[in-house]
Structure formats: C-alpha cells, structure tokens
Please model this.
Amino acid sequence: AQSVTQLDSQVPVFEEAPVELRCNYSSSVSVYLFWYVQYPNQGLQLLLKYLSGSTLVKGINGFEAEFNKSQTSFHLRKPSVHISDTAEYFCAVSRGTSYDKVIFGPGTSLSVIP
Amino acid sequence: NAGVTQTPKFQVLKTGQSMTLQCAQDMNHNSMYWYRQDPGMGLRLIYYSASEGTTDKGEVPNGYNVSRLNKREFSLRLESAAPSQTSVYFCASSGRQGLGEQYFGPGTRLTVT
Model:
C-alpha cells in the first residue's frame, strides 16, 4: 500500500527566507508525485508534478521539487518566500493505475511572517 | 471555462437530515472524485467515478452514496447526516487517466449539529 508522510505539520518562515517542505512516500511500484497548494477557503490547485525524466521539477510561483528515488522523497523548495505563499501544501502520490487514485499527505501549513 | 463547480458552498444540517452535494465539470474529464478534508488528515477519498456509468468506493464511503449523472456531473448524497460527517467536501476531476493530476472545486463546508 502507498502512503505519504509530511514530517512538518506547520512551518513558519520569515518573508524572503528560503523554505523546504518535506515529503516522503512509500510504494513498492513506480509512482507519480505531486505537490498541491490550498490557499485559505479555496480548493487545491496543482503546484508541480513529477512524472518521469529530470528529477528536478519546476512549478508555478517559483517553487521546485526534487525527486529522490533512493530516499523515496519529494521535497518542495523555494529560495525566497513571499507573504502570498502562506497556504497549506499537500504532497501526493499516484500509482498510475487505470484511474487516477491519488494518496494525499496530511499537509504542511506554511506561514510566512512579515 | 468554469472548471469544477460545487453547490452549495455552505450547509448546516441537523442529525438525521439528508442532502445532496452537487458537482459539475466542464473540462470533458472522464474521472471524478469526492473527498472530505478534516484537520490534520489531509484529503480522504469517499467515492470516485473512473468513467461515466461507473462508481466505486474509496477510503471512507460509509454513510455516503454517489451518482454519476452524466459525464459532467457527479453528486454526493448523505442519507442520514451524522456529526462525524462535519467536514469540508471537495469534488475533483481528472482527464488524464493513470497520471493523477486532478482539478478541484472550491469545496462545500458542511456542519452537522
């Protein structure tokens, strides 16, 4: 069975500082990996995805993530955060079956402090 | 394109009442999903529909029923609401089978008293 762990439930960071949100997954098969962002009182939207190819993936709003197969990790990074990055971030994994079943992590709440 | 729309946005029910949450997508997607979101638990899949005419249980289906009315619409019904069903409900759709990229609606915040 697949599972997704997000080690930090809350991450406070000062504006313009770098941030890393950690994600680890467990799966016995190849997976596709995603980061979704949820702004307050909104639905989730895709931030970036890893399907294949280069292990460094760039997404919207200056975010990037690196797929590390040996460590089964997919950490999200941004070199300089902005107040508008305050949101909930979800790591997710899909096994790529005949339907798009996605397993979501519990989420990390990023708070950017001015 | 409106994307994925959900109605209502907010709802308060008394224990034992029933209601239907509506979801529609205009992206011609094959697959649709209902999730619930509770603090600290991420999103949990209630039911999904891989294609028009099919529905299957997800992780937490008890107390819910669904109908895939057509390719656009996927409704979630609570027959007899319970306080444990207080949650935020999200509908999502996906057009690329097997890859996992999903598009979400704005959510319905349901409170059962």
